[in-house]
Design goal:
Elements lengths: L15 H13 L9 H13 L9 E8 L15 H11 L3 H9 L2 E8 L10 E3 L17 H20 L4 E7 L3 H13 L3 H4 L8 H18 L5 H8 L2 H15 L4 E3 L2 H13 L7 E3 L8 H7 L16 H19 L3 H4 L7
This protein binds nicotinate mononucleotide and 5,6-dimethylbenzimidazole.
Amino acid sequence: MTLPTSWTSPPPLPDDRFRNEALERQAVLTKPPGSLGRLEEVAVELAGQQGSGRPSVDQVHIAIFAGDHGVCAEGISAFPQEVTGQMIANFAHGGAAISVMARHLDATLEVINLGTVTPVPDLQGVNQLQIAPGTANLAVEPAMTPHQVSAALQAGDDVAERAAAAGAQLFIGGDMGIGNTTTAAALACALLDASASDLAGPGTGLDAQGVSHKAEVIGRALTRHGDNRDPLAVLGSLGGLEIAALTGAILGCAARRIPVLVDGFIVSVAALVAVRQQPVARQWLHFSHRSGEPGHNRVLAAMEAQPLLDLGMRLGEGSGAAVALPLLRSACALHNDMASFAGAGVSNKEA
Ligand SMILES: O=C(O)c1ccc[n+]([C@@H]2O[C@H](COP(=O)([O-])O)[C@@H](O)[C@H]2O)c1
Ligand SMILES: Cc1cc2nc[nH]c2cc1C
């Protein structure tokens, strides 16, 4: 399998000097130490990641990765497969949740169609790659060929390259793919040695009977796959085109020193594949929200991730990350612009 050239060595580490300086600055700002809670940690991590004394997430690059899933043949989603292609058009026309949020946040938005079952017309802002007309049915055969995995990883890395060239200070990846909660759950089961019933959830809205059928389909896929735990082998066997591209984008951002704000269940599973492939990539990740999809908890725990928000969102598209972005902006503004005890003439804590 050919891997993106940005992966020839492990990702760099964030810059400890800027991280430590940011910690020292937090200690002298006019507030009791720690009183801004997680916002302090966010600013300190961003300072180290950006190698800057004034962290900023004004310039944000959002990319939505879309693809179809052969496992839909097993009846595992509440929605029909053609919605994937229809939603790509909705992203381009500005009517999807992430389209609204990208405008609201003044972020760049691009859409990458990795491969749909129904053809999608040429649309402005949509990069049509069509690596395959969706994946194969992972319950009966490997979802992707090694060539397809390579092409999808490279597509993600290309997005990271574009984000870097545009001067992005933060990257948000989103997903769109009917059936991809089955795919993501299967991937997570294989990587975490979890059982299908632990990680199968309602996705777009299955009832309890639908969820138990979905767990049975995932169980069949896991039996077929066997016990190979190599992250890219698992990705090829049980993954999706958009999930592979997200993995490529996350590792591509880490390689280029761009912090990533991780969205919900599907993007977190792509991040898990990335972290299993290159553990240092974890140091470039911020976690935005806890999805309503129940399997998300296990995936977050495996990366020791504490998401910022828990709003019961389960949309995908990068929407949870977009909703959390203002928290990162607040963290930066407070870190950069608050007065120090000495500067404001405020007495510090008693020694
Ligand atoms: O990211 C999440 O947390 C999430 C949770 C549930 C559903 N989704 C979205 O819903 C679609 C997949 O759901 P399903 O039921 O078709 O597997 C896909 O387009 C995802 O973006 C996303
Ligand atoms: C309408 C719709 C929008 C979505 N956005 C992400 N996943 C989705 C699934 C559906 C069904």
